[in-house]
Amino acid sequence: MSHLSVHVPLDGGRAYDILIGRGLVDAVGAQAAALGAKAAGIVTDETVAGLYGARVRASLERAGLRCGIIAVPPGEASKSYAGYASVCDGLLALKIERGDLVVALGGGVVGDLAGFAAATLRRGVRFLQVPTTLLAQVDSSVGGKTGINSPHGKNLIGAFHQPRLVLADTATLDTLVEREMRAGYAEVAKYGLINDPGFFDWCEAHWRGIFSGGPERDEAVAICCRAKAGVVVRDEREDGERALLNLGHTFGHALERLTQYDSARLVHGEGVAIGLALAFRFSARLGLCSGQEAGRVANHLAMAGLPTRLQDVPGGSGDAEAMLDAMAQDKKVRDGALTFILARGIGQSFIAPGIGRDDVRAFLQDELRG
Amino acid sequence: MSHLSVHVPLDGGRAYDILIGRGLVDAVGAQAAALGAKAAGIVTDETVAGLYGARVRASLERAGLRCGIIAVPPGEASKSYAGYASVCDGLLALKIERGDLVVALGGGVVGDLAGFAAATLRRGVRFLQVPTTLLAQVDSSVGGKTGINSPHGKNLIGAFHQPRLVLADTATLDTLVEREMRAGYAEVAKYGLINDPGFFDWCEAHWRGIFSGGPERDEAVAICCRAKAGVVVRDEREDGERALLNLGHTFGHALERLTQYDSARLVHGEGVAIGLALAFRFSARLGLCSGQEAGRVANHLAMAGLPTRLQDVPGGSGDAEAMLDAMAQDKKVRDGALTFILARGIGQSFIAPGIGRDDVRAFLQDELRG
């Protein structure tokens, strides 16, 4: 089987590989056996279980591993204290020991939930990620962030726990609904916007191949994983540079919060798409980059079918004050100051701490009027 | 204020101090301020809250910190998924941010629960331990193990998370019930039995001073913390030597399991006391140490009011087969093999992997007949 590979060179015996290619779900068993595991607990959601559960289980059993499937309901609601308890207890019922593996088969919700369970089961067991959405393949399966939501907010409970291996089977994206594909694409474009203008050019030329499953898809996933891995290795705990990955996310998270995480109205990647467009228009307004570049960003995202304006949120996003309050609840807030990721141009983003509320309010008011 | 001090020289910026002395609960605020925290969430149980909550809160407020108290019901039942969720949400409601502190005020249950919440809140906030039982002062507040129980067993969910500081106020032990004091003393004696025969001699001569609150109490706590800190620094994740700290615990944990963790019948330290006596008698039976030394261990524990025989468990401990099954559920089991900590004499313990079920069964059967 031919595939691309990205190495994540973390220290302390935590380095791992990301393999990218079509058909990798059938390689889970061989890879798990190569890691010395005798048993594996497959954590997934009910939708993905129906599509790929049997194949992953068969692959593990062919390789001689004892295994079982723990399927949670699909959707963000499973990333809860109750979901966490049920996954942990499911893994314990399967008698997963310290040398065994947790296999996270699914999108970001499953990856975060299974990763957090693996981080804390018996104070840490190894886990293998099999991301089945574009978003999870380019973003949430790289970096070691795991966690669940609290009634007080998203991802407020969690741990850093690196996978031992990531198998990104790009053929699984063939079964992804179009809207989720587009949402994941916002994170793809983000990597160009952060610090790789050449990749953004390439995206403008090749995005259709990513959607249709051509070789561009594998290539894009590998480029994004390599970019994120580089950032994570240099700044694992987000004391500095890693914050750049939040380009578009300060606005995006606020929009998700204001729409009550109702995926019928807005999914994460859509919030990010609007957030990216806003971050560039806000940068242009502050005289940091040209309005032309901000326009180019919004145009490309719109071409790929993504929303780019506050008015694009079904049911509206509330007023500027509500957005400001929602941004202030972000867990990256320290002592109440707002930090944004802004840009001097496509591929020229930077961390901008201490942005004044008044500047943000005036910008958002104009956006809502426009 | 005069106090003893033990330094725990962990790497990666995780080194911390343990201060030991009378009256340290009033120093929490000054120490928290010195760590740069602006707010503190005090996690405690309802009993300890009534005894020391107001003093710790006043100390923090005097030092200019915003703070609040989260009190769980006393007892092991709070170390549950539900207890964990309520502590995390309580800390979030207090707006504890990454630079702030979680203060664990109480015994082992509170330390484990608050420590696990601190380890995972916002993927890790700092915590300060204020252990108020002898067991917590000499054992559970050193080493960074935090966690909760699952319906499948004790401490099966958790994380390694080191405190930033431990304040062991030995005057708080004046309010400890006698039975908990004795139970903690089993862990004190354990340190002598592991690798410090001179300390065991000293214990035989001075144990009454530990119970009555003389200077021997502070000295014993410091010696135990120093011993445990040394082991933890050399083997933080329990790949080797740290397992020695489980002397008496393989039997002890099995007894706790067989008595359904019903503290009316058996508390942890009582299980450990019986386990220590059994580990030495088992070692003598295997020809590793003399029966005289095994007798000396049991005599000293009995002198301090601790149980030393299976028959001492109110309601009985079940038969040998039940004990074996309970031991096989220990989370330290790998591939089903039983590992014991045995001894060639007082202060000469060692890790003995691969002990046969038949040898253990025959020993337990004789014990139950004796």
From TrEMBL, chains A, B:
It comes from the Bacteria. GO terms for biological process: amino acid biosynthetic process; aromatic amino acid family biosynthetic process; chorismate biosynthetic process. Zn(2+) binds at E187, H249, H268. Its EC number is 4.2.3.4. It holds the Pfam family DHQ_synthase. NAD(+) binds at G108, V109, V110, G111, D112, T132, T133, K145, K154, T172, L173, D174, T175. Residues 184-333 form the 3-dehydroquinate synthase C-terminal domain. Catalyzes the conversion of 3-deoxy-D-arabino-heptulosonate 7-phosphate (DAHP) to dehydroquinate (DHQ). Belongs to the sugar phosphate cyclases superfamily. Dehydroquinate synthase family. This is 3-dehydroquinate synthase. It comes from Methylobacterium symbioticum.
